[in-house]
Amino acid sequence: MGNTSDPDHIFLYLKLLTATENSMPPFHVFVSFLGPLLGISLGFDAVNSEKNNGTLIRLMAQPVYRDNLLLSKFVSTLILVSVLFISLVLLMTGGGLLITGVRMEPQELLRIMAFVGISILYVGFWLSLSILLSIGLRQAATSALTAIGIWLFFTVFYQILINLVVRAVLPDPDFLSAEQIAAYNELILTLLRVSPSQLYTDATTTLLMPSVRSLGPVTMEQMAGAIPAPLPFKESLMIVWPQVSGLVASTVVCFALGYYIFMRREIRS
Amino acid sequence: MDPIIQLKGLTKCYGALKAVDDLSLDIAKGEVFGLLGPNGAGKTTTILMMLGLSEPTAGSAWVSGINATSRPIEVKRKVGYMPDSVFYDSMTAFENLLYLGRLNGLPEPEVRSRAAEMMEVVGLSAHMHQKTATYSRGMKQRLGVADVLIKKPEVIILDEPTLGIDPSGVKEFLHLIKELSVGQGLTVLLSSHHLHHVQQVCDRVGIFVKGKLLAEGSINALSGNLFNKDGYTTAITLGNAPTAAAL
To answer: Which residues are CB-neighbours of A192 under 8 A, at least 6 positions away?
Structure first.
């Protein structure tokens, strides 16, 4: 905090959420790991356990639309997750406020709120994926394992896979011009952003560290005139907008797919 | 006769298998109709098509003048369906009823009194606040009836309601059904594979085998149609009387 050469040093409460003593990962990294597990554990048996218990047919014999069933499964869990995240973050910042008494910048509040929103969205993606699996797969155990498999693939193996492919396919960087290297770097980053956890990490780092001004490689010319100063909130939000749209889009795709499968299926016990 | 349930040439195929084959049936208002048939005869499939939970391959199902396939929500408002009784085990019987009442859009002030009243009707008021996990099968079946009645249906459909209940329980249960049908003017459709259960309460019975309705009518008319009226007689004629010596 006393380090004045750090452009983010005026944002105490953002530091509270991101800085650690290296003994444990910062809060947003924690969420990027455990958020998916939260979403999966809340959604993996949403539909198939009702079906296996025989309560689904009892529900469907009532005058309710099928889409309302899916929507209520999704929305109720999302409310639960929202309450969890909002209270967690409020506890952390509120605790900081009580102990230090430092005034909170309005911009910090906005950034923290945006961070909470994106975290909820991120869990929402995993929730809708696991609801999709719970519609498609008959056994709750199968759908849980599949969802965890997908999560593991994207958090661990996807990076390894991309690295392997990059090493095997791309030419030796020693023979490339600076522009070509930059173009290849951009390509690799784009590939990595297929993974939702990468999107989430990108989005939260930018929001919680105002000095991050680009998510891709920056050339020396671009850096030359730049003053190491925090970006305004709106600019940070503009940087992460593609990431946010990507998360929203993948959530909607999963939900729509589940909806399509569920709508015309015959339900019997 | 004013049919409240009308099935017209209802057919359902699963691949090559014809689960229900060109079924046409009329059920009048206030009638207790028994659908009698062995397992796998297509009884449940027929019921699902009546509720719009399954789409018929051909033909149509009409419940009080509403097409069940194209407007299932309206049909479900009028029809109470009791599948094999399962409830949310983590909730009490009363909470289960409240939940269903709310799903059916009962207004909040009414739903509690209505649920309590239904528990009274089926004789479970004493066990109202117990978890349904502790209920016996017979009690669950009766709770199932309360569950069906809470929406004030015009038709109730019971799928194998007597399965797994002891004989005295069956008798009590069927008595309750009959009482409701007479007292509230409900139309009841009951599926079962026990002839002697069905014949205790049903006004009319349809015999359903391999997707086809073999016969329908009142129990007496059916026994007249299907069997010889006098029962079987065996006649033995001897060519010549055996002599005493041969015996």
So the answer is: A158, A159, A162, A198
Q: How many domains does chain A have?
A: 1
Q: How far from each other are the two terminal CA atoms of chain A, in whole angstroms?
A: 61
pTM: 0.85
| CATH class label, B3-226 | alpha beta
Interchain proximity A63–B48, CB inside 8 Å: no
For A256, the domain range is: 12-263
- Averages of pLDDT over each 10 residues, chain B, 247 residues: 84 88 89 88 88 88 89 90 85 92 90 91 89 89 89 90 84 87 88 84 88 83 67 76 68
Q: Which residue of A has its CA nearest to B76?
A: A63
Residue boundaries of the structural domains of chain B: 3-226
ipTM over 0.90: no
∠ CA A108-A114-A117, rounded to 5°: 145
Residue A207 belongs to a domain: yes
Helix or strand or coil: residue B23?
strand
Q: Looking at the partner chain, which of A58, A62, A266 has a beta carbon nearest the beta carbon of B104?
A: A62
Cβ-nearest to B53 among A54, A55, A266: A266
Answer whether residue A268 is part of any domain: no
Asked whether residue A1 is domain-assigned, the answer is no
- Between chain A and chain B, the number of residue pairs with CB atoms below 8 A apart is 54
